[in-house]
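Holo prediction. Input below; ligand is zinc ion.
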Amino acid sequence: MKIEDKVLDLAKRRGFIWGPSPNIYDGGLRGFYDWGPLGKLLKNKVENVLRKGFSGFSFWEVECPTVMPQKVWEASGHLDSFVDYVTKCIKCGASHRVDHLIEDIDDFNEEKLSKLLIEKDIKCPSCNKGGFGSVEPVNLMMSTVVGIDEEVFLRPETATTTYLLFPELYRFFRTKMPFGVFQLGKAYRNEISPRQSVFRTREFTQMEAQLFLLKEHFNDYSENELPLMKFGSDKIEYIKLGESVEKKFMKKESYAFMNYVAYKLMLDMGFDKTKLRIRQHDPSELAFYAEDAWDIEINTERYGWMEICGVHDRQDYDLKRHAEFSKTKMEVQGEIPTILEIAFGLERSAYALLENSLVDDDKRDWLKFEPGMAPIDVAIFPLMKKDGMGDLAKELFSDLDKEFACIYDDSGSIGRRYRRMDEVGTSFCITVDHASLTDGDVTLREISSMNQVRVKVSELKNIFRELLSGDLKFEDLK
Ligand SMILES: [Zn+2]
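Structure of the complex:
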């Protein structure tokens, strides 16, 4: 089996990702997935790293509703501009996104696209026979109704809902600029033909951070390097943050800083540096609100380079529009602030991490997570259930589970239990044996080296704190 097929097989078999959902009804709705128990644990770890990371850079967390009135999306521009161009096969009736049928379109216009389909004699990929009718823009927002007849929309991004809080936030931060805020939550996009499994879904979780600022804001990270790939170039150049403006990669120092924050969080999650790049958008690829955009991409086996995170310079577009449509003053200290945004996709991050972690080294298939990123930190086994070994192991489990993600397992041989844990990347296993009952020592095994060491039960908590934060290496345990 190829590595990318192994990942999907593992994800399904061991309870990471199931779907499309709801599977038992006609195989589910396309573009919706369930996260099983281990997948959810992994997603939680991703969430924790991002939350901790953003707070470390002084961003504060907020939470807004996922449903917003139409007027918000008129103001944000999503109602008019958040569209895909779609056409139907005249033979079989299948709908297709025009940008999936024709590569490298740089001008989106219904009539031009219709002509192009005919000129290039494009046939329907579903039936291989039909040509296409007219091209229509289809809005990607999902709508629903509140009350009796008020049409409202599910948010297509968390960002806009954060912007609406600007007047309150400005007061909260005691009128000091710049300030940063982030939001974790669901967003919805009615993808016409969802593909690429959890990379392109109709419901997904975002963590988006916004920096509101009035003037350029300097930072202390200028010595750090970013793997930048400029628009029009096909090579990655390692550029120091402090030189990114002067060398004409970034237009603003503060924007380079936001790219650094996003990249740093990717490294914190344990992504392999050699598989990351920050790629600038082609001007025709830019979202309607963006002045400049760079994506942090990871090289995946299955899908090639995929976006995990987008960093956008939204300038004063959003606050200006909301000021105009809501008749609320967004100007402070004589100016409308500009916004720099970091947008993470949580499902994408978790999937990419899973694929990146899979190691196939002849002896075994196992998941190699960075310390603290595995869905389960510690597995606790009694050698046998009898003679009090089961009781001691359960006691250990309930104590350690308060602080770490733990599992108790007493079925099958120790070897088999190790293999089950290797397959899902559990960092450490503890075995309670006969000797443990008298000397208070247990066997501690590390997944990556498969080495074992005897340690005191009373020291386990401290040991795990240090091992999982990366402060201690297993081989230094005596
Ligand atoms: Zn067709």
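DSSP finds 15 helices and 24 strands in the chain. That is the main takeaway for now.
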